[in-house]
Design a protein that fits this description.
Layout lengths: L1 E6 L7 H17 L4 E3 L17 H16 L2 E13 L2 E11 L1 E7 L23 E4 L2 E5 L8 H9 L4 E6 L7 H16 L3 E5 L1 E4 L2 E4 L3 E3 L5 E4 L6 E7 L6 E3 L9 H19 L4 E5 L4 H14 L4 E5 L7 H14 L2 E4 L3 H10 L1 H4 L6 H22 L1 E5 L3 H6 L12 E2 L6 H14 L5 H5 L19 H13 L4 H6 L4 H13 L1 H4 L33
Parallel strand pairs: 1-2, 2-3, 7-8, 8-9, 16-17, 16-19, 17-18, 19-20
Antiparallel strand pairs: 1-14, 3-4, 4-5, 6-7, 9-12, 10-11, 12-13, 14-15
Helix pairs in contact: 1-2, 3-4, 5-6, 5-12, 6-7, 6-12, 8-10, 14-16
GO biological process, one term: NAD+ biosynthetic process
EC number: 6.3.5.1
Family: Belongs to the NAD synthetase family. In the C-terminal section; belongs to the NAD synthetase family.
């Protein structure tokens, strides 16, 4: 049996577009003389469709798409993912279409409802296993989460399956590839059953889907893997008698380390901008490391002709910051402007002079600087249709070291799930490709430059300490005693936890950001804004 694997980049809700991708892959499968082609989970509507699933008219469009696929009368069987409404409820199904008939429909049984998943909000669980005979081979079907637990695979094997096909929509986070491969290999090995694992790719709001569709033999060895962070198409020849699997092309290695994270960020920016109809992107280029890394990601994602940056200096901006921003823009070949915020700031202060009379200068004046810059960027975005990329990293967003309606104003925060220490590593990595970030930007002490001689570490622990505490508290849910036992100063730990908890209201107002860790702010980590939990940690 020749099995084609279609690893496509779908757009949630655009059923017509997704249908055209499916038809294009079907034509490729036909030209390769495939017997069956497998698409990813919910391929017709894209994943995750969220509350689009509550719209009755969605199902009319999906039904029309299914009818169109049936009318093609193709000799190649298709495994198509889509939602289906039935009297018993709504189901996440994999439908097998051959010629002008539906052979079987498998209803996903295990519905993930943790981390970024909330499938139980929408779907009912299926209750029947599925093995169907096709061209002399007994083919089993399982969808995504079904494959992460031993029992469904064992039941399919017991029903006589010779091979298992699994449509998936498995979102990316760093290290997911190794975990995924270990689990899929275990299912294959436990049951001596080859598995064809098909994943989608692409960015969907905060989520990245990395592809890496793969085939595992009955010994649990990954014998073939498709491209990471890119669309791909391939087929395998499966010999039922010997169990031999012969892929149509060579095995592709996965990315690792900073390269893997960089490619995920590039994919996320590209798809967020293009799928939402933006003509390009723009950002404030400060001469600091965060905006330098964000700019390089944007250029790699969208091309230099579609990115522009603005340096918005003020009296506290160091001359080296302006020089470094200009050097970054020149190295990447982008459009670059310099617009001073001094006149705008003075206008604000003049209008507020009577209200501020008799008060001391404090963070208010610093925030006005940031808000002048945010207003400038949003005006340029409105005028020229470009997406504003904000540049706050996870460390800053965690402790609220950012300004509402200032540096937080924009459409996408590229580094929202990237710690400050990882930002430095990404800068070093990107410079190995071509040197676009000046060495001084990487080595100088970080500063918001909102006050004279300001440095981040005047207000925060050193970033290597801060990031370790944040990882323990935010990503691992460790408490104060556990973090202190790791060797960190109790006063630092208490202050960081307090800052994280009192700044939830800020994080709710940040733009969406690209998820690269197992616990990202946003749809992943959901904490109440109104909460007294963190107050107890401010001091002992």
């Amino acid at each position: 049996m020749r099995i084609a694997i279609a690893q496509n980049n779908y757009t949630v809700g655009d059923i017509r577009h997704n249908l055209e991708l499916i038809k294009s892959s079907l034509r490729q499968a036909e030209s390769d003389n495939a017997d069956i082609v497998v698409f990813s989970e919910l391929s017709l509507c894209g994943y995750p469709p969220e509350d689009l699933l509550l719209r009755p008219d969605l199902y009319t469009i999906i039904d029309d798409a299914i009818e169109e696929l049936l009318s093609l009368n193709s000799s190649v069987a298709m495994v198509i993912g889509h939602p289906i409404k039935e009297p018993e409820g709504l189901f996440n199904v994999a439908t097998v279409i051959h010629q002008n008939k539906i052979l079987v429909q498998y209803r996903k049984q295990l519905l993930p409802n943790y981390s970024v998943f909330d499938e139980k909000r929408y779907f009912e669980s299926g209750s029947e296993d599925c093995v169907f005979a096709f061209k002399g081979v007994n083919v089993g079907l399982l969808v995504c989460e079904d494959l992460w637990y031993p029992e469904p695979t064992a039941r399919v094997k017991a029903l006589g399956a010779d091979i298992l096909l699994s449509p998936n929509a498995s979102p990316y986070c760093y290290g997911k590839g190794a975990l995924r491969s270990a689990e899929m290999g275990s299912r294959a090995r436990e049951n001596e059953l080859p598995i064809v694992y098909v994943n989608q790719i692409g960015g969907q709001d905060e989520l990245i889907f990395d592809g890496c569709s793969a085939v595992y033999n009955e010994e649990g060895q990954r014998v073939f893997q498709m491209a990471e962070m890119a669309e791909d198409f391939a087929f395998i020849d499966f010999d039922k008698t010997s169990g031999a699997i012969k892929p149509s092309k060579g095995y592709l290695n996965q990315f690792h380390g900073e390269e893997e994270i960089w490619q995920a960020l590039v994919l996320g920016v590209r798809d967020y901008a293009q799928k939402n109809g933006f003509k390009g992107a723009l950002l404030g280029l400060s001469g600091g490391i965060d905006s330098a890394v964000t700019l390089a990601v944007a250029v790699d994602a969208l091309g230099k002709e579609n990115v522009n940056a603005v340096m918005m200096p003020f009296r506290y901006t160091a001359s080296m910051s302006i020089e470094d921003a200009e050097a970054e823009a020149k190295a990447l070949g982008i459009e670059f402007d310099v617009i001073s915020i001094e006149p705008m700031y003075e206008a604000f202060m003049s209008q507020l002079s009577s209200q501020f009379e008799g008060t001391e200068t404090d963070l208010t004046e610093q925030n006005i600087q940031a808000r002048c810059r945010g207003t400038l960027l949003m005006a340029l975005s409105n005028k020229f249709g470009r997406l504003v990329l904000t540049t706050g990293n996870k460390s800053e967003v965690a402790v609220g070291y950012c300004t509402l309606y200032g540096d937080m104003a924009g459409g996408l925060d590229v580094l929202k799930d990237v710690s400050k220490t990882m930002v430095y590593r990404l800068a070093r990595y990107r410079n190995t490709i071509s040197e676009v970030i000046p060495e001084r930007v990487i080595t100088r002490p970080p500063s918001a430059e909102l006050a004279p001689d300001q440095k981040d570490e005047d207000n925060l622990p050193p970033y290597d300490i801060l990031d370790a505490i944040l990882e323990a508290y935010v990503e691992q849910d460790k408490g104060i005693d556990d973090i202190v036992a790791m060797g960190y100063d109790e006063a630092d730990v208490r202050r960081v936890i307090w800052l994280v908890d009192i700044n939830e209201h800020k994080r709710r107002q940040t733009p969406p950001g690209i998820r690269i860790t197992q616990r990202a702010f946003g749809r992943d980590r959901r904490y109440p804004i109104t909460s007294g939990f963190g107050r107890q940690f401010k001091s002992k």
